[in-house]
UniProtKB/TrEMBL annotation:
Example of a GO biological process term: DNA-templated transcription termination
UniProt entry tagged with the keyword Glycoprotein: no
Keywords on record: RNA-binding, Transcription, Transcription regulation
Domain of life: Bacteria
Full protein name: Transcription attenuation protein MtrB
Natural source organism: Paenibacillus protaetiae
Amino acid sequence: MQDSSEYIVIKAKDQGVQVIGMTRGQDTKFHHNEKLDKNEVMICQFTDHTSAIKIRGKATILTKYGTVETDQ
């Protein structure tokens, strides 16, 4: 297993923000889906199985690189 210290924090600014985990490997596929309610917070971790996280909806995303606001 690789170093799993990469985390992001997602705070939903609207109802129904989707957080989708995507797999590693030759073919990128969806492997996990969550829906967040307004003001709900989720902490996500990159792992051997998760190489990308897709976010749909209005949210604030905090990473070690800074803060990102989605446009919706």
